Amino acid sequence: MDHTVFTGNPLDRVSAKRPDSAWIAARLADPNARVLAVWNGRPFVETPGDEGREEGARLAYITAGEARRIAGDREDGLFFLGLDGETPVFGMEIGGASDPGEGAFERRTGRFAELRGVALALPPSEAAVVATAKSLLDWHRRHGFCSACGNASRSVDSGWRRVCPACETEHFPRVDPVVIMLAVANDKCLLGRNAGWPEGRMSALAGFMEPGETIEEACARELKEESGLVVRSVAYHSSQPWPFPSSLMIGLIAEVEDGQAVPDGVEILELRWFARDEARDVLAGRHPEVATPGGLGIARTLFASWCAG
Length: 309
Ligand SMILES: [Zn+2]
What we know:
Radius of gyration: 22 Å
Largest sheet: 7 strands, mixed
Low-confidence stretches: none
Structural class: alpha+beta
Bound molecules: zinc ion
């Protein structure tokens, strides 16, 4: 199976140790500790090649000492991501409106790279670490205030929980589940073009789950809404953390009743069935009209898996 980007985070999260502030402090004091700096959702990376070329990109970790100096009195902004073997790995948000990389951030030759552009160039394990850090840091940035009473909340458990000092409500990093499904019938699969996509770009259908739904029900509802098709059965394939800002893509293969697929005209403008040979041409990039689905997304994994069947 093709590797799905953002999957395969190699860190041991050691989640039981997060509330142990002495243990966390000892990890921060470890001279080998590494810190992933993220500015405005962008990880700090180094690339061996020319400016603007992402090939060979690697995360440019800073030391815990550098991070603490930058953080100053914001030291609670250093979040424990886990252990890489024995090496502690932290994430930290670099604030500010202008790109700190422009000022030779920490005298390094790296830069803050837009994640969608650099994700496929990073080693898969590093892309997965970035996905974790970015979603966690985004959550803190967007959830500084208690949703129950409106007071400022504070980060605890090295970034994995927030607590409101006024009403004591606990808040946990959110993950929003999304169903993404390749609909199949009679040895054909269905791709759709979202509103806003250029002609020829097509992918699997998808939508956010709603409260009270099973995965299967959400899949059936989304397919009915976006294509008019009726689901017969749903099979789980695989999943993907999606750090824009913090979704979990639940990849499904949905067998549907054969019938005419009618786009809803709002979210989906065009639907098209592909027999397997034609689908393989799309996957190989040699279809005259339709481009391969989902550069970073799990849609490509689902599609490639079906094409190989
Ligand atoms: Zn509160």
